[in-house]
Amino acid sequence: MKEKDMKKLFALLLALVMALSLVACGEKKDDTEDKTDDSNPSTGMELTQATDLVIATGGTSGAWYPIGVSIADTLTNVDNNLFVTSEVTNGGVENARLLGTHAANVGFVNSDTAYFATQSEDAFASEPAYELYGLANLYDSVLEIAVLADSGNMGIIVFLVTLGIMVDLMNKGGGSEAFGRWAKKTVHTRCGAQLLTMLLGVLIFVDDYFNCLTVGAVMRPVTESHKISRAKLAYVIDSTAAPVCMIAPVSSWAAAVSGYVQSPSINGIELFLKQIPWNYYCLLTLLMIVVISLLNIDYGSMLTHEYNAQVKDDLFTTPERPFAGDDEYETGSKGKSSVLDLILPVIVLIVTCIVGLIYTGGYYDAESEYVGDFMGAFSNASSGAGLAIGSMLALVFTFIYFWLRGAIGFEKSFESVPQGFIQMIAPILILTFAWTLCSFTRNAMYSADFVSNAMANVGDLRMFLPAIIFIIGAAIGFATGTSWGTIGIMAPIVVSVFNYDVEPILCTIGLAAACSGGVMGDHCSPISDTTIMASAGAHCYHLNHVFTQIPYALTVAGVSFVSFILAGLIQNVFVNLLIAVALMVGTLLVIRAIVAKKHAGIFAEMAEANKAFAHYRY
Questions:
Q1: Cα 574 from chain centroid (whole Å)
Q2: The model's pTM
Q3: Distance CA 1, CA 9 (A)
Q4: Cα dihedral across residues 57, 62, 66, 71: positive or negative
Q5: Taking the CB of residue 605, how many other CB atoms lie within 10 A of it?
Q6: DSSP 3-state assignment of 462?
Q7: pLDDT tens digit sequence for 58-68
Q8: Which of 255, 294, 409, 432 is a Cys-bridge partner for 383, taking CB atoms 3.0 to 4.6 Å apart?
Q9: Rounded to 10 degrees, what is the CA torsion of 93, 95, 101, 106?
Q10: What span, in angstroms and rounded, lies between the C-alpha atoms of 185 and 182?
Q11: 80: helix, strand or coil
Q12: Cα(333)–Cα(111) distance, rounded to whole angstroms?
């Protein structure tokens, strides 16, 4: 073999190595590279006789050109006697022609284009079949992120749309108005009004949007009658929306989180259930509402809002009055409404969703291993399909219920279908983007594999990872404003770092930390969807809600951070939960003592105003 031929062979091999190391491009058709004039095979590069090796690349604006230039420069620098040229072409079709006619030695060609060139098809139909040899397949497969093609994801979207329709239907039927009327007659104290707001939020645990829309509409007149500031109402709504949904097994959040978890060792729903007692931020947030309501604890800018509401009869504090004049309820078409119009549809929704979940888990399937096994079927359930089935059944019931009650007519009831769908457009878009982000980070960026390898030799420091995961999740949630997106990023990483077969408790704590962090960041973020919805539900100026909630959220976050450190070390669910509760209550008592001493005059005025208001009211 001649020396020149040896050089060419060496150059070809080196070009292959360089291509593999510089790029992963191949099978997916690149429109930029294939813009060529099929009717003129001669268009494109002009070759020179001095060239030892010619690389046909593509247009200067495409991906192939800089790669070809880099390969050519590298090969030329390797051997001064070897001259390699990268030539601009019109793309893959022309490259195939140049290779087939031996006008180029190496070229970038898409696999489908190469096939057509060897078969005289498509753009090469009028040309002879070219003999082409492939050096390598640089990209084995095309990554396609199609989250809406997944039946489980579509089931969750159906569930959300159905919830939106049910919320609007219950408002039109007068259910919200009836509950608010009953509450105003029944609740006699500020503490009772706050706790009832929380209780209603806990009852409506199936979705945070459903929660915010319903609780805000129902409890505004109740809290207003007890001089509770709109900022305080927004905080209670926000703190019983996402936290409740995150620890409720029958909710859109459970379906979303279980879909993010892809582990061969455990079903997503089962792991979601196991993380509930470790989810400190959500649990302690609910505990905090109870404690501050019973002990009348307020601090930070919230204290100013509560002082103005109780002493100055100003529920807003700032000049902004959003949603002014928009506090009227819809009543039934014949003035018929009762508390049952709100409570019964929600109860039916919960029951039918549970039935739908165990149905998809094989509870009623005689051939399933989980037939008759409630917990087994629930753990094995397809959350998207189960919630979609259950919500559709509940929606049909709600329509028929209001028709039979005569509370709303047939035509008006179906106005709720488009209006309910419109209410849920925002969460559907957020969830779709969260799924896309989750799929991209998992399948394209391999973030879980990267973190798993990075943490492979951390040893005993693994015990502190849940606390670190919580902080990272909170930061991402605050920056993005979406807990769903945050958990979509963090959950695959958690199940990759902690092998459930080897470290089941740490894996569970890690997922709880990711969920807690996502909710915490979402709570503090001014661009969060649930924060905005809570402000809208309470008719509170949005920035007032954000600034008054942050001190409360940071208090719970601090206790949660310490609790996750202890959880990684102790790893006993009951002991750790008791410690977390004790830390939370103790922290609030300390804050109460400090604030009461610092603002003694303010609290005295508030107590006097409440005493006078109670005397006037009763």
A1: 29
A2: 0.69
A3: 10
A4: negative
A5: 15
A6: helix
A7: 887 777 788 88
A8: 255
A9: -150
A10: 5
A11: coil
A12: 65
